[in-house]
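Re: folding output
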Amino acid sequence: MASGRTGQQGMRGDASHGAPSALLRRHWQGLRRGPALPRRDQITPRALAAMLDHALMVERRPDGAVLLRYAGMAVNAVHGQDLTGRPLSALFETGARADLLAALEPAFAGQRALSMALHSERGLTRPPLTARLMLLPLAGCGSEGITLIGSLDLDGPALLPPRRFRIERVLGETLDLPAGEAARAPPVEGGPPPVLVWSRG
């Protein structure tokens, strides 16, 4: 099972090949055909077994609520309880939640993959905690909308939960291709380089 430690390289947005987010990204990218998003029913727990503890799946309800449909054990450990069915914002400081929802808009439109650098403050008896949250859009089945599948890579143990994060930086990768290129574009390992969407500094 992957440990979840990403180190400084991962926090710069270039996760090491063994990080949970890198395993998820390779699987997601391998399911793509040209610009088409993978379908949610193509994602199986068996294919993601090596990083399933760090995985999460996020849906937006018709009323606008953004909920966790699934949260792995490492994600739950950050909060100290099962987060399945809870708002994704439960992982974030109150002041970060408006920025979170704004960043999610293009992802739920299927236009952007996201990588967020996160930080949880030091407490009286607990060290600071940094993390990287990757979110990738999945096409729905039938009339269902886009779902996001993600990975929370932690740069250390989540001591004394609940830990809540602020967003330090958001990187976005545009998933659209120009008309005429989409049909003949093969699946690729990486894709276009990410661009800075938002930064605290």
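--- second protein (sequence, then structure) ---
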Amino acid sequence: MTSTGTAPAPDAALVRRPGPARVLWLLVVLAVLGALLATSVAIGSRGVGWADIVAALGGSSETIGEAAVTKRIPRTALAVVVGAALGLSGAVMQGVTRNPLADPGVLGINMGASLAVVAGFAWFGLFSETAIVWTAIAGAGVAAVFVYAVGSLGRGGPTPLKLALAGAATAAALTSFVTAITLPRGDIAESIQSWEIGGVGGATFDRIGTVLPFLLVGLAVSLLSARSLNSLALGDELAAGLGERVALVRGVAALGSVLLCGAATAVAGPIAFVGLVVPHLCRLLVGVDHRWLLPFSALTGAALLTAADVVGRVVARPGELDVGILTALIGAPFFIWIVRRQKVREL
């Protein structure tokens, strides 16, 4: 999954990051994530005190405040898990395709998972959590292969611009198919439309437990591909000269990314732009070395989605805005900025 030719040399300012600076940023990201976790548990439509939080963490749910905290804990955990999966998935996709615009939403992979799940709901009665996860992963994989195949047509191979256009067109078409399936099914239309927005409300530890094995496998595959992704960044010919089996490396890393975004979509709906914004931000902090970039993208993605969930609860009290809406508000202008700044060249 790459375009032909040799990628331009990365900006030296992004490549060279001393070890102490990276460790410092790691501590900063962990501190921010910890603060966001505490904020997410404490803030909602109902205010709670520290006594309620401590009691709820101990398993009590007798008072209204304790019950509210008990609901927020799995919701916060789901935001962390899904944000980490999407951030890491986007970083791997950008490394595999050497495309600065790569993201599960931009490339239509989320919508492939979404269409598969909606079709399973409407036509095959797939309501088992495990079946939904497998269906979403299969849909994400088919969409990824299709977008890459379409983006590879014509002269020049799969350039960043062609992949982005193929992904946008595919996402639009798949969205239309989802609507066509949903409209005649009034019995499931409301729940599907709510899920399609993308959110972490209604989370339970049972739902998280269902997708966790898939996410852990995707995490392991992605992190183990870090060194090989560094080689791919030098160009296919040089990577092959360094002993990398380019096609195999690309396929394995892409599999890890598909597992992550497919499982995340199954449990939280198609949340876009996290995988686009996060890797670019992390490159500014730790450079382009994937051994640092991938774990940083996971942590920063978790922080971003948790922050979006907190903001969504605050700005629309006593209701809330789903995280899918807020990430779109953040990501769409960022996407335009990346296009103008990078001029859709390779990473």
